[in-house]
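The protein record filed here:
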Amino acid sequence: MLLYIVKRVIAAIPLIFGLLTITFFIIRMAPGDPASLYLQGNVDPGIADRVRRNFGLDDPLPVQYVKWLKAMATGEFGVSFSKHRPVVDILADAIPNTLILTTLALFLNIALGVLIGTLSAVTRGSWVDNITTVLALFVYSIPEFWLALMLILGVSLHLDLLPAAQMHSPNADQLPAFAYILDLAKHLVLPVFVLGFASAAATGRYMRGSLLDVIKQDYIRTARAKGLPEWKVVGKHAMRNAMIPVITIVGLSLPFLLGGAVVVEAVFDWPGMGNVLLEAIFSRDYPVVIALTAVSGFMVVLGNLLADILYAVVDPRIRLE
């Protein structure tokens, strides 16, 4: 198992490096100049050149690329153009917030998706199956930003039940520990729901199809012929094999969760990677964009690796070797 993980990590290094190289050239070839943030009106050309020199933008693109390679080899992400802080510090502030959001959304995705898919499969052809199928397709087709805005209008503004934005209330750091956690939980409800609910609809559809295929197998008929109760047939014998395709979908859903987090964090003003990435793109903050791309690529590779490992956990017949 350990050797397999090491091989997968080593194989992922060229992939992440290629991703960062493509990102490096794309953002530098895009229209706009990071130095323009500091140059207003009829500024002295000498000052403009000095700003670009400080950013390392006065060198030809190949030279910039070589310097970037040397910095990456030492693990140095540089300093943010717009925030004037080390990129590592910015990542340290943003990554935990995004991990909280995406991890809870992933759990909601799995729990709700498996529940919906199982319920729909065991009641195939009934009104329960028809309703869950229609609702799953309807939810899956709703854009995340629209659902987020509607929840803010209905739940936060009209009903005043939950906060509409941010991660904490003002002066939350002065609250007792339990009240602080409760305040965070209230701010998490809407973004986690938006990010995990639509994904759960897709997971439920895959779970339904996979479980229906498994239920048709001979060993399921044998288990029923032995007189086992239906809940035990489905829960103990069918669910385990039906989860294998779902694990694939869950592992591959991590990139979509990260992509959706950009939109959700922007709508709810959540101080995570997505919000930081949008600000960095608009301000042409090259070091931050590249660093966040590296982190996102690592998370995608990690998600796929975890999916492969879970195969062997769910189905002992699968051996990673």
